[in-house]
Write a structure and sequence with these properties.
Bifunctional carbon monoxide dehydrogenase/acetyl-coa synthase(codh/acs), Chain M, domain 5; alpha+beta; four-stranded mixed sheet
Length: 240
């Protein structure tokens, strides 16, 4: 509850998390109140506590100064911290964009989001889903090109909880871009996602507009479904 009341604007410190560097040396999470670690296990409060218990450990504070772009969430201090944590492998990351210098992904992300340009939106796939997504790729195929500490503009690993965040893909237009996710994931995040959609856009029951594998995994059929539902993504600026 305490974390839910916090925003990225309400704190003056973010944290790095490098717990996964043993198998992805170029990866570094930046943990903020509204964006937990992509594993889903490290919140801002967790990172803060980890740093207090082990000041030289995997979670290091980043003074939140030098904002160069509010839309994408770009900070000079974040870039410096990530550059230091990755030994210069990654020197520029944004906190709120999937297309412009997205955060790196290791391999233990709970979900992957990816652009589907023909639908002008984003799909999200969780690790537990073994089927095909409308991008024509499975979770494993998406993971193979997204993980390992590389930046893959248009695709990004993230935690489940981040899906309902007001900062999710904020630079690309936010949660209104979400057009498809597996039913289990959709049901899991529905209450929080619908609450955010109502707060931000006045949309009731937003998840009813989002397709899942019981509706279609075909991109052409997905466009038909989104059109029928009047999904807001279809009327937004081109995603790329």
């Amino acid at each position: 509850d305490r974390l839910n009341a916090m925003t990225d604007e309400s704190v003056d410190t973010f944290y790095t998390c490098t717990l996964c560097q043993s198998f992805a040396p170029a990866h570094c999470c930046v943990v903020t109140p509204e964006r937990l670690g992509l594993c889903g296990a490290v919140s801002w409060l967790d990172a803060k506590a980890t740093n207090q218990l082990n000041p030289t450990g995997p979670c290091q504070p980043i003074e939140k100064t030098g904002c160069t772009d509010e839309r994408t969430g770009a900070y000079t201090t974040v870039n410096e911290a990530v550059g230091a944590a990755t030994q210069g492998a990654v020197n520029t990351v944004t906190l709120y964009s999937i297309l412009e210098d997205p955060m790196t992904s290791c391999g233990c992300f709970e979900c992957i989001c990816g652009i589907i340009p023909e639908c002008n939106g984003l799909i999200i796939c969780n690790r537990e889903f073994g089927g095909m997504t409308p991008t024509g790729m499975t979770f494993g195929e998406l993971a193979s090109m997204t993980g390992g500490g590389v930046q893959t503009p248009g695709f990004m690993g993230h935690g489940r909880h981040f899906i309902a965040s007001k900062k999710f893909a904020k630079a690309e237009g936010g949660i209104e871009r979400i057009v498809w996710m597996p039913k289990e994931l959709k049901d899991d995040v529905a209450e929080r996602l619908n609450k955010t959609a109502k707060e931000l856009y006045g949309i009731e029951n937003f998840t009813d507009m989002i397709a899942d594998e019981t509706i279609t995994t075909d991109s052409a059929e997905l466009i038909e479904f989104l059109t029928e539902k009047g999904h807001p993504a279809l009327g937004m600026d081109p995603i790329m």
